[in-house]
Amino acid sequence: MPFDSLGGPDRDPDDADLLIAARNLIDFPGAWIKHAYYRQEHGQKRFCAMGALAVACDSGFAFPSRKAHRLARYLVNEMPRRGGYLLRYISAPMRVRAYNDSSNTTQNEVIALFDKAIQRLAPYRSSWPVKAHAILDGGGNRV
């Protein structure tokens, strides 16, 4: 598969923690959105999948950092295979955005994508397992 080479020494032990932090931002009801990176409504911060990755990586929304690109590749690796060979020419952040914004995609599917990527990184993590909510609380604040 296109991003299967993300194994071994290229993996950063912090990648799983960053994916967990991003997942926590969109984990609870009303926290996930489509068609925007970020919104704040009634004091609640809401994110799409790429917006959550950008925040977890301290990256910008419009121009994701290399770290955010790398994390997006982990998510792409766990996506359902559809769309044909042309998808290999689309960047990982664009594919994550397209998947997030699809009319058929649900919040649970996006969370499951994060869960699969986190589980795949488990062998490369020094302190696995950790509870997902140990990094951020339900409001997206660092604990």
List the topology elements:
Blueprint: H1 14-26, E1 38-41, E2 44-47, H2 49-56, H3 66-78, H4 92-101, H5 107-121
Antiparallel strand pairs: 1-2
Strand order within the widest beta sheet: 1-2
* Helical amount: 40-55%
Low-confidence stretches: 1-9, 128-138
Distance N to C terminus: 37 Å
The number of domains is 1
Q: Which class of secondary structure composition applies to the elements?
A: mainly alpha
Strand content: 5-15%
- Helices and strands, in N-to-C order? HEEHHHH
Shape: globular
Instruction: Report the total helices.
Output: 5
Radius of gyration: 14 Å
Main beta sheet, described? 2 strands, antiparallel
Arithmetic mean pLDDT: 80
| Extended strand count | 2
Describe the structure.
The protein is mainly alpha-helical and 143 residues long. It has one domain. 41% of the residues lie in helices and 6% in strands. The protein has 5 helices and 2 strands, in the order αββαααα. The chain has helices at residues 14-26, 49-56, 66-78, 92-101, 107-121; strands spanning 38-41, 44-47. A two-stranded antiparallel ribbon has the order 1-2. A hairpin with a 2-residue loop joins strand 1 and strand 2 (44-47). Helix 1 packs across helix 2 (49-56) and helix 3 (66-78) packs across helix 4 (92-101). The longest helix has 15 residues, at 107-121.
